[in-house]
Structure of EAL domain-containing protein:
Amino acid sequence: MLNLPVQEPTSARRTERSNGPRPAVYSEPSSEARTSGLALLTVATAALLAFAQSLPLSELRPPLLASLHVLVKMVGAAIALAISLLTWNTRRAQPLNFVIAGFGFFAVAVLAAMQLVMAPGMPGLAAAHDANAATVMLLSTDGAAIAALLAAALGPAHPGSPRALRAGIAVTGIWIAASIALARAALQWGPGTEQAAAYAELALAATALVAAGLLFLRHLRGAAAFALLAMAALLLAIGVAGGSGMPPLQHAGGIFSDGYKVLAGLLVYLALFRKGVLLPWHQLVESGRAVEVDRRRYKQLFESAPDGLLLVDGSGRILHANPAAAAMFGWASGELTGQRVEVLLPAALRHEHERARTRFDVSPQARQMGRGGSLTAARRDGGSFPVEIALVPQEFGDGHSTLCIVRDVTERRQLEETLMRQALHDALTELPNRRHFRDSVTKALAHAERHGGTLALVFIDLDNFKQVNDSFGHSEGDALLCQVARRLAQTLRGGDLLARMGGDEFAVLLVGAQQADAAAVAGKVLRVLEPDFAHGGQAFKVGASIGITMYPTDGRSVEELLSNADLAMYRAKHRGRNTWCFFEQRMTERLRERSSLQRELAHATKRGQFELAFQPRVHASDGALSGYEALLRWRHPLHGNVPPDVFISLAEESGLIVSIGEWVLREACAQAARWRAAGAADLTMAVNVSPHQLRHAGFAACVQQVLLETGWPARQLELEITETALMEDPREVAVLLHRINALGVRFAIDDFGTGYSSLAYLKTFPLHRLKVDRSFVQGLQVEGSDRVIAASIIALAHALGLEVTAEGVETADQRDFLREQRCDELQGYLFSAPISAAQCEAWLTQKGIPCRQSLTPHCLQATYVCE
Ligand SMILES: Nc1nc2c(ncn2[C@@H]2O[C@H](COP(=O)(O)O[C@H]3[C@@H](O)[C@H](n4cnc5c(=O)[nH]c(N)nc54)O[C@@H]3COP(=O)(O)O)[C@@H](O)[C@H]2O)c(=O)[nH]1
């Protein structure tokens, strides 16, 4: 059986000793029944004594009577001595008032013995047999007993300090010495002191009665031992009063008087015995039982604890191991006892552990679970596993030992690793994520700063990914991202950190790289993305715009480097995508300028800084005017004309495009209505619509409202929507366009050929026109793919029942080719640049509604070269 160390730690015992005896011994349990039994016994004995007093003892012969009296006195002295010895031996378990009472009874014992020595017929003192001296001794003895009981009644019930004990001993000694001195003085007194002695006896008896009352009062307050003392004081009072005026010996009355005193002494002995011996013994038995209960409880806890518990002695030997520890380390229960604790460690760690244990033994300190990190432990079969331990130094009487609490953290460690992996890696591509990347850059920066190194951050944003995602669905998009991640990972070196920053953004950290290295990596990235990506029978083309920042020239913190790389990447996008760009300081200046422009844009409408320009569209067949495209112009008081390419994107970023777009729509329709009123009845007004406007819930209502307000016929309003905007959320957009189309409004798909539209979806939109992007038109001069593409787009549009407008027509060759391909409408500088409303009005007024008439150069005062 496992014997747990349940004794109190020596340190605890030391503390207790220094604090003196436990106060618990004074919390005497009430024992009313036993006290009443004793009271009955006392009363019975007293009654017996009273009865005995009626016996004819006085008829006994004087020597016999004297012997009997001496015997009674000897018993009394012996009891008094027993009381004082008991008190001395139990002085640590007794309260101070009882100890002082016990010391008083020592005086009683000594003085009673002297009385015996002084008795007639006893060999003894020189002054023996003197009646006065004997009376003094008797009075001193009785006085000592009564004083002792008074001390018990009035004295403090707390433990006595050594000083108080010494004082008690001194008083006792003084009392004895004073009594002897008085007895000696009494030798000089003449006869006739009997009367005074009788009064003194009566006074003592009265004092004993007072003591009895006080003791009884203390008994009533809950201390059972005082009941015995109260009864003792009462018997003493009877004894003292009964013996008053009698000669000390050879008198039957004196024997009875001393009998009461003997009885009183017995009760005092019993009271002190109960207090000093019985109660502590009961408490000892009780605490022994409690200790046993505790021992069982702790044993149960030890054995059922889910953690491994090992009690290891100072030499590293296992004293006890609980079943969980045995199971954890692959040992049978009980086998670990007696083993060295190092058997639980892999061989390679044992020596180091022994040294650490020796250091620990020199100054053992408790260690909390997991504080010292995790350790590797060994199973009996040689397998290892991670553990955390807590150490609790133990100090018992048999030397110090250590309780080791061992926890197998294998599962927790696996979970932590999984969580850590999830927290630092992208779930889709399994590449390090943004957080991981930032952490790595932070560390690399710290290292580079210390060692004067360099870093390059290559920020990669895929071109056209959004269109793929929107057109072909997210699963295709995800598959494409995984392929991109694989290709990038394969093309980079092992030491380079490739991360997915989110969406279609990737980043590479190149430690120790110079500009040339970063440029080489950017070039490699573009090359590796060049071949088509294939998934689900589809082929996708994905390019990338790459921004590069260098440490330390372009920034010194992660935030700065990342945001500058982002700026450089945007620059690359503006440069036409699929290229890379190093960060330059002026990019941040441009950013600042853009922010300030964006703030001013918010006030441009109410400050009247917006104007519309109108670019004519002509019929390809005869060059007759078919309509206008409204184009927004921002006349900035300081910056002059801000190009729409700049401010439209700012308006889109800030959301201002919704209100600005509404202003354009209203102005364009109002203007067209005025021209209509002037006779230009059949013209179409085309207005550009941003994807942000389409996403705005009130767009359809806004169009309806504008048409109502301006009176412009819905069928003569054409909303131009870019291919990309259509494909952002094709289903939602189709629903919206059908709602607006129901009003009669027509739709043109703008910049066709630059985006990624699905022909399947094109059929679902209520489209009327397709505008061929000017990038194809401008490539028509030379024989090549653009001619083929433009021709195909026109044919496709016609096949879908759409009219075709070619944008950016600048030369007659372009016009002729487009005519040949049966393009319906033409728009471009060849016919007119965008012109102001006033210029258009001047022309309309002069010519009188020239609908379906050839435009002439002079009338539009613009670069107009129509034949
Ligand atoms: N959502 C809105 N977008 C608008 C609005 N107003 C303009 N825009 C868009 O801004 C982009 C730039 O427009 P802009 O600078 O006005 O350029 C237009 C023409 O000036 C230009 N163009 C026309 N003919 C020629 C030509 O022969 N050669 C040549 N190099 N450029 C020419 O093309 C632009 C019109 O393009 P498009 O809209 O695709 O028909 C532009 O994307 C505008 O759409 C607005 O109110 N809302």
